[in-house]
Specification:
This protein is an alpha/beta fold. Among the domains are: 133 residues, P-loop containing nucleotide triphosphate hydrolases (Rossmann fold); 97 residues, 2-Layer Sandwich (Alpha-Beta Plaits), CATH 3.30.70. It has 14 helices and 14 strands. Strands 6-7-8-3-9-10 form a 6-stranded mixed beta sheet, with helices on both faces. Strands 2-1-4-5 form a 4-stranded antiparallel beta sheet. Helix 7 packs parallel to helix 8. The structure holds adenosine-5'-triphosphate. Adenosine-5'-triphosphate binds next to strand 2 and helix 3. Pfam families: ABC_tran, NIL. Belongs to the ABC transporter superfamily. It comes from Bradyrhizobium cosmicum.
């Protein structure tokens, strides 16, 4: 049972509160209970149901990815966590406090324990790196001496101690995001929200920032919620994932479970993008619909699970006595599991002879491999 299943979906808050302490993750960092969010009609524009029937929990200390296409409701969800938006129905609980019920000073105090980083960093251009990081501490009323010590600590933590006096215009994208992360962590939050924080960065810098977030999670125990439309971010960093589509949670659970057995088409499409499930162009252009004499049937086999595809071609060739060709293979690792596909060429033998193909498909199905026939090559 995973964290999300352990919190009974759709139960009202009172029932959720009664969950036995024996359920390890019954004390999550964030809980959405019966949430919907509707933006009202405005100046002739119709109202929008941005979120509906949202019931899930984010485990304490986890890194949870919230993935969805544009307009799926990701930002609305994240604004509910830090209380910038109120739900239309339901409750949002953060660290055992109902943030959705707070207002004014109480809300501002609660928001200090929820840090946030942004795609475009949101730094003040007129302040140095150190002064940007100091800002939330000034607002929280820290003394000058305490701010100085804390800012030095934070700059070192994010690996830019030497950029203390630099202005944002003098920093690279990755360095600016490091300042953003230090600022978000200044008041020692228990939750860090990341809204597409690496979307404006190149792949190498993205990798470095994701590594930094992983260290922060490990060393400080901060729960991280990553909003993203990029599967690669979830794959590199998250242990848990919530897939949003049109305002609904369509799947949630451990990354390895969800992406080795994706059920919803939107999850399948994210996975296909992540592992480059498309065929190589040279192969694609050779595939025809009718079996050519002496050709091969092209079969794509999905590989899901630890070591799932390792011996497949050898076993298939041995057990069925076939000269199986490996036309293309793409296998990646997600959450420690192999995910990808093998494209096999099965010799047709005599003209129109489909016996080998039928036997191959039956053999694959016997071993629970999902397979499809894509066509034929000469
Ligand atoms: N303040 C608002 N007023 C009215 N409609 C809004 C508001 N904020 C968001 N919406 C609408 O709610 C829906 C969900 O938007 P949201 O920004 O939460 O999605 P998203 O998944 O974050 O999208 P993106 O990746 O493009 O930022 C969209 O249809 C959007 O137009």
């Amino acid at each position: 049972m995973n964290a999300h299943q352990s919190l009974a979906i759709g139960q009202p808050l009172e029932t959720l509160e009664a969950i036995s302490p024996a359920a390890v993750e019954a004390d999550p960092m964030v809980r959405f209970a019966g949430i919907s969010k509707t933006y009202p009609a405005y100046r002739g524009k119709p109202g929008v149901n941005a979120l509906q029937d949202i019931d899930f929990a984010i485990p304490r200390g986890s890194i949870t990815g919230v993935i969805g296409r544009s307009g799926a409701g990701k930002s609305s969800l994240v604004r509910l966590i830090n209380g910038l938006e109120k739900p239309t129905t339901g409750h949002v609980i953060v660290d055992n406090r109902e943030i959705s019920a707070l207002a004014g000073r109480e809300l501002r105090l609660a928001q200090r324990s929820i840090g946030m980083i942004f795609q475009h960093f949101n730094l003040l251009s007129s302040r140095t790196a150190a002064d940007n990081i100091a800002l939330p501490l000034e607002i929280a009323g820290w003394s000058k001496a305490d701010i100085k010590t804390r800012v030095a600590e934070l700059l070192a933590l994010v690996g830019i101690a030497d950029k203390h006096d630099r202005y944002p215009s003098e920093l690279s994208g990755g360095q600016k995001q490091r300042v953003g992360i230090a600022r978000a962590l200044a008041t020692r939050p228990s939750v860090l929200l990341s809204d597409e924080a690496t979307s404006a960065l190149d792949p190498q810098t993205t990798r470095a920032i994701l590594d930094l977030l992983a260290n922060i999670n490990r060393e400080l125990g901060v729960t991280i919620v990553l909003i993203t439309h990029e599967m690669s971010v979830v794959r590199q960093l998250a242990r848990d994932v919530v897939v949003l589509d049109a305002g609904h949670v369509v799947e949630s659970g451990h990354v390895a479970d969800i992406f080795t057995h994706p059920r919803h088409p939107i999850t399948q499409s994210f996975l296909a993008e992540a592992i480059g499930d498309s065929l190589p162009v040279s192969l694609q252009s050779r595939i025809v619909a009718e079996p050519p004499v002496g050709g091969q049937a092209v079969i794509r086999v999905q590989v899901r699970g630890a070591g799932a595809g390792d011996t497949l071609v050898a076993r298939l060739a041995r057990e069925l006595g076939l000269d199986v060709a490996l036309l293309s293979a793409r296998i990646d690792e997600i959450g420690g599991q192999h995910v990808g596909s093998l494209v096999l060429g099965i010799p047709l033998g005599i003209p129109g002879g489909e016996g080998a193909v039928t036997r191959t498909l039956a053999w694959l199905s016997q071993y629970q491999f999902s397979a499809e026939r894509l066509g034929y090559v000469a």
